[in-house]
């Protein structure tokens, strides 16, 4: 949008055309939510779409941070300790021939020591 404004254009005034271009850039889940929430009897404004996108971003950010906090809590409860900066955990006991690595999205990867 800034690039268009730099070229002397006013994309906010393009109305439905600019709205359509922006909607084509949304992922399927966000587009579906937009279709559910948008008013059907009038063409939404650029400002309404931007507000919707900002709200979705804040929700997504909250969910992701909650997942991270929950995965850290679960790892602590299971006796796993942090061993690197990229959110991987190693089992506190090492008496087995395999170690398990749990990534931030809770996938378990086993490898022979």
Q: How is the biggest beta sheet arranged?
A: 4 strands, antiparallel
Number of strands: 4
Q: Portion of residues in helices?
A: 40-55%
User: What class do helices, strands and sheet pairing give?
Assistant: alpha+beta
Outline: elongated
Tally of helical runs: 4
Return the average pLDDT rounded to an integer.
73
Which consecutive residue ranges, at least 5 long each, have pLDDT under 50?
Answer: 89-113
Record the strand order, biggest sheet: 1-2-3-4
Strand content: 5-15%
N- to C-terminal separation?
Answer: 53 Å
Q: What's the Cα radius of gyration? A: 23 Å
Oligomer: single chain
Q: How are helices and strands ordered from N to C? A: HHHHEEEE
What can you see in these coordinates?
- The chain starts with a helix and ends with a strand.
- The chain is elongated, with a radius of gyration of 23 Å.
- Helices cover 50% and strands 14% of the residues.
- Strand 3 and strand 4 form a beta hairpin.
- Strands 1-2-3-4 form a four-stranded antiparallel β-sheet.
- The protein has four helices and four strands.
- It is α+β, with helices and mostly antiparallel strands.
- The longest helix is centred in the middle third of the chain and has 32 residues.
Care to give the gist of this entry?
The chain contains 4 helices and 4 strands, in the order ααααββββ. The chain has 113 residues and is an alpha+beta fold.
């Amino acid at each position: 949008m800034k690039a268009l404004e730099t070229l002397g254009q006013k994309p906010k005034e393009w109305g439905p055309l600019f709205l359509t271009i922006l909607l084509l850039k949304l992922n399927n889940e966000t587009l579906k939510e937009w279709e559910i929430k948008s008013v059907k009897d009038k063409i939404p404004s650029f400002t309404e779409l931007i507000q919707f996108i900002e709200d979705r971003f804040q929700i997504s950010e909250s969910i992701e941070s909650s997942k991270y906090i929950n995965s850290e809590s679960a790892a602590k409860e299971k006796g796993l300790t942090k061993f690197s900066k990229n959110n991987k955990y190693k089992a506190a006991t090492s008496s087995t021939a395999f170690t398990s690595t749990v990534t931030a999205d809770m996938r378990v990867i086993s490898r022979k020591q």
